[in-house]
């Protein structure tokens, strides 16, 4: 989590991403590149908490008809699972 007052991110969030686990993945499956095409404006708004990134991920999975493991469950079930 980002602490706006100190300008630091919580160590726990950095520990969740270790690049060595993703080096053999294709770029589109590597979380290190997830925001490379995202505008700076959107990144800054996300950092400030102007919107909920996790909600957007849940909504996208629901739109794909997938559960939280990426398994196809159908659109209605996915909406229920993700509460969107």
Q: How would you explain this protein's 3D organization?
A:
By secondary structure, this protein is mainly alpha-helical. The chain folds into 2 domains: 1-48, no CATH class; 52-84, no CATH class. The protein is 38% helix and 5% strand. Strands 1-2 form a two-stranded antiparallel sheet. Helix 3 runs antiparallel to helix 4. The longest helix is centred in the last third of the chain and has 11 residues, at 53-63. The chain is globular, with a radius of gyration of 15 Å.
Alpha-beta classification: mainly alpha
Fraction of residues in H or I helices: 25-40%
Distance between the termini: 24 Å
Proportion of beta-strand residues: under 5%
Principal-axes geometry comes out as: globular
Radius of gyration: 15 Å
- Number of continuous helical runs: 4
Low-pLDDT stretches: none
Instruction: List SSEs in N-to-C order.
Output: EEHHHH
* Biggest β-sheet: strands ordered side by side in the sheet: 1-2
The largest pleated sheet is described as: 2 strands, antiparallel
Mean pLDDT: 89
Number of strands: 2
Question: Which helices and strands, and how do they pair?
Answer:
Elements: E1 2-3, E2 8-9, H1 11-15, H2 40-47, H3 53-63, H4 75-82
Antiparallel strand pairs: 1-2
Brief overview:
The chain is mostly helical and 84 residues long.
What labels would you give this structure?
single chain; 84 residues; mainly alpha; 2 domains; 4 helices; globular
